[in-house]
Amino acid sequence: MTNSKHNDPQVLATATVTTTSAETAVNGIAGAQAPKIDPPSVSIRNKRLEQPKLFQTEQSVKTRPRTFMERQPYIFAYGAAISTFSPMATAYQLCKLYNIKAAPSQLARMSATIFPHQTMLKAIQMNASTPVKEYLNPWAAFAVVGVLQGGVYGQSNVHFSNALKLGKVASLKGIFRGSAFAGCRDTISQGIPFMCSGAFRQSVLDPLWDTKEGTPLHSAKMWSSVIATSVVATYMSQGLHNFQIAMQADQSLGYVSAVQSVV
């Protein structure tokens, strides 16, 4: 009786279906509950492949622009750095203009006394010129910056004129004298490198010096173009600078008489 029941095809079929359904149910539950675990080598490889995406995300984050107060330490540091040698250069040019022989140590001592003033004036000039550069066209911006910078030079010219006893009329009221010369000077000395260095590189340096973009040699070629045009522009504007020096050191001169006295 027992044997016939176990050998019945219907019973066997029912048992097989029941067993298969049970296995399927167990496997389904196990598959749903058991997480898939990769071998260690696969897991490490996947993590390595994901790292560049993480780095790209971090690199694409942009910082906010610095506020006015946050920019001041950098501006004053730049002004101090420029003021360590700019007054000396102004004193040297004044001596050359009026054929004065002064020892370098004497010029250094005179320059040191106006270091704080020059640093402050340079910082004021940079703060005032920032919005000018942002909202005016480049040529107008260079002219305005030149006028502001002329005032910085004017303070040192008046100081050296009195210290060297040039016998000329010089007071701090005239530090902005010759502003037209100053505006034209910086339009040339800064505008030409800014506007023309790219064209100079393409027409002169590129045929002579073949480089690929993004390489150090290409960067060197670009800087060579900027430096070359800056040197030429500085020589072109030197006469205008001398005219302003004369008007600030001798404040009895006008524009025409300043040109006549220098030429």
What tags apply to this protein structure?
263 residues; mainly alpha; disordered N terminus
Would you write up a description of this structure?
By secondary structure, the protein is mainly α. It has helices spanning 2-6, 9-33, 40-59, 68-82, 86-97, 104-113, 115-135, 138-163, 179-189, 191-208, 216-249, 255-262. Helix 8 packs across helix 11. The radius of gyration is 38 Å and the shape is globular. Residues 1-34 and 51-58 have low confidence and may be disordered.
- Main sheet attributes: strand count, strand direction, barrel closure: none
* Overall morphology: globular
Please provide the count of β strands. Answer: 0
**Spans where pLDDT lies below 50 across 5 or more residues:** 1-34, 51-58
Give the integer mean of the pLDDT values.
80
Please estimate the helix content: over 70%
- Beta strand %: under 5%
String of helices and strands: HHHHHHHHHHHH
Total helical elements: 12
What's the Cα radius of gyration?
Answer: 38 Å
Helix/sheet category: mainly alpha
Termini separation: 137 Å
